[in-house]
Amino acid sequence: MLDVLDRGLLQALQIDGRVAFSLVGEVLGVSDQTIARRYARLRAEAGVRVLGAVLPQAVGRQVWVVRVRCVPEAAVGLARALARQPETSWVQIASGGSEIICMVQAPADAPAEESALLSRLPRTPRVTEVSAHCVLHMFFGGSTSPLTKNGPLTSGQRARLRPPAAEPVTSPVDLSAADHALLSALALDGRAGFRSLAEATGWSQTRVRRRLAELRSGGIVYFDVDFDPAPFGLRTSAALWLSVAPGHLAAAGEALAAHPQVGFAAATTGASHLYASVQCGDSTALYAYLTGPVAALPGVRSVETAPSMRVFKQAATVVG
């Protein structure tokens, strides 16, 4: 299990993935060397990775929640294959081993069936059904995670660590080849030094620093923390599909986003209008969550629960 310092460091990294360890040390009351050692240990023992990510709509991409039903003996191989695809994230086997759930990014200006990955899935041997649900509005996720709302930092400490607010993205932007090289390097290590980023782009360190600041302030790039939930005592994960009365959808989504158990929540297309990914300590805690906070959400008509059996890919890290 992680101690308060570990959890404070992780929360600080979720607030700003490239925050200086000297500032984190000041906020937490320890030296920057202590913070660096803790970070190295968390990387080695808890699978912690700080990753740079691109806001999908900033580059003309649309996010889909995809459910793939298949014969159970084919699930592991297919999940591994999906995890290797650059456009996927959060690939997991659920529902007793007969279903794969994942997030897929596809071009926003084309129908889902024109996506190379989405169009191939229904024709994949031993796949029995594929459904893709377009994410219409994200209530929680992206640059925020359970670390954001469940850590030990006070509001004052969070304010000291928070980077300048980014501008809202209103339309896709054009990125250069060097921009893509920079983003690819950050996707591997969001805390990569300016020297290595300069080598990846062919730019000077000064230009890399300036361009990264532009991409962050423009809302194009954000940073996320991939981590193994087990050291947090979170050993039961599940996907929830909630059918909600349209007039209550916004209120239900906003309330769901505030729940400590929720790592992602969004309004989607399909028979169910609200999708969420949740993590609990065990099945008893999941039951208490479903019959308590979820049952109290406004306008909920029904809830479908798909417990996760095995995760093959997190936000960007392949783990299975």
Automatic annotation (TrEMBL):
<dbReference type="InterPro" id="IPR036390">
    <property type="entry name" value="WH_DNA-bd_sf"/>
</dbReference>
<feature type="domain" description="Transcription regulator AsnC/Lrp ligand binding">
    <location>
        <begin position="241"/>
        <end position="310"/>
    </location>
</feature>
<keyword id="KW-0805">Transcription regulation</keyword>
<dbReference type="Pfam" id="PF01037">
    <property type="entry name" value="AsnC_trans_reg"/>
</dbReference>
<dbReference type="InterPro" id="IPR000485">
    <property type="entry name" value="AsnC-type_HTH_dom"/>
</dbReference>
<dbReference type="GO" id="GO:0043565">
    <property type="term" value="F:sequence-specific DNA binding"/>
</dbReference>
<dbReference type="GO" id="GO:0005829">
    <property type="term" value="C:cytosol"/>
</dbReference>
<dbReference type="InterPro" id="IPR019888">
    <property type="entry name" value="Tscrpt_reg_AsnC-like"/>
</dbReference>
<feature type="domain" description="HTH asnC-type">
    <location>
        <begin position="2"/>
        <end position="43"/>
    </location>
</feature>
<dbReference type="InterPro" id="IPR011008">
    <property type="entry name" value="Dimeric_a/b-barrel"/>
</dbReference>
<keyword id="KW-0804">Transcription</keyword>
<dbReference type="InterPro" id="IPR036388">
    <property type="entry name" value="WH-like_DNA-bd_sf"/>
</dbReference>
<feature type="domain" description="HTH asnC-type">
    <location>
        <begin position="178"/>
        <end position="216"/>
    </location>
</feature>
<protein>
    <submittedName>
        <fullName>AsnC family transcriptional regulator</fullName>
    </submittedName>
</protein>
<dbReference type="Pfam" id="PF13404">
    <property type="entry name" value="HTH_AsnC-type"/>
</dbReference>
<dbReference type="GO" id="GO:0043200">
    <property type="term" value="P:response to amino acid"/>
</dbReference>
<dbReference type="InterPro" id="IPR019887">
    <property type="entry name" value="Tscrpt_reg_AsnC/Lrp_C"/>
</dbReference>
<keyword id="KW-0238">DNA-binding</keyword>
